[in-house]
Amino acid sequence: MLNNNNTKKRILTGDRPTGPLHLGHYVGSLVNRVRLQDEYNCFFIIADYQFLTDHLHDTILVEEYINEIILDWLSVGMDPRKSTFFIQSQVPEIAELTVIFSMLATVARLQRNPTVKDEFKASGLRAISYGFLGYPVSQAADILVVRSHLVPVGDDNLPHVEQTREIARTFNSTFSEVFPIPEPLVGKVSRLPGLDGQKMAKSRGNAIYLKDTPEEVKRKVSIAITDPARIKATDIGHPDLCSVFKYYLAFVINEAPTVEQNCRKGKIGCVACKNYLSDKVNIFLEPIREKRNYYGHKPRFISEILAEGIKRTGIEAKETMRLVHEAMHYDYKKLLI
Ligand code: TRP
Prior knowledge:
three-stranded parallel beta sheet, two-stranded parallel sheet
């Protein structure tokens, strides 16, 4: 470890390995993670059990998806020398803690979680499993197994952090003060829409992935939906109704006010505006692609990072379980030697 990680406050956050990460992930959480790595002791989880909620039939893909996420993390500058990367299923204490926490969350409370409701609807499943309904409890175990203080998340995960705080409070008041009450931290830029103005989704093909080629970026931006009222380049535009403009606000901030004015006056057409945006996004993505390509040829390095991260998380997790069992009188000092 490079520095005195033990005296720093801890962060836990991460991703489900459902596929490669896109620009929405970048502005919503990845930048934050990179920024926070020096100040905090960061734990980054790949939630492969949480993947099962709505991907039960895709487990053959999970290993490759995990690899993609690690490459995305490394390519944006998340740094395994400063932070800990690990896979949820490889730290069995998380599953143990989930069993205990499941006694501290009511079914009614879980049924009210708006994100679980939305995800269930989007999944197309006919009935919700016990594990899908209860995954916020397992996410609370992800967060609290390292006794995390801060949880950087997108706004859709705020209900889960709220539930985690309730579980931590309930545990502490029922047994004794083992857990900090973790604070959420939401990214500065509000959610980036897909290029069609809808929520980004793999199935809609409306997201730009960090690993997209320059040609893919150009193609996706070229078919993005702009102000529908604008037919001719000289028509007056409404940047507030345009999904492309949202990308200017996130990636070409300095020039966004000029583009906005020119659009409102009908001085710049959508085609030119899109071409300029693709160029800018490609300039932004170039160093990320380079790093991704570099680490793509280093599978051994990735295995080593994961082994080290799983080990480090395991040490924290064992200490947490010791404290938890002691607080609950489950340390059985007399019965067991
Ligand atoms: N639910 C998060 C997502 O879908 C992923 C996740 C799993 C997570 N465990 C976590 C995020 C713990 C923050 C903390 O993006």
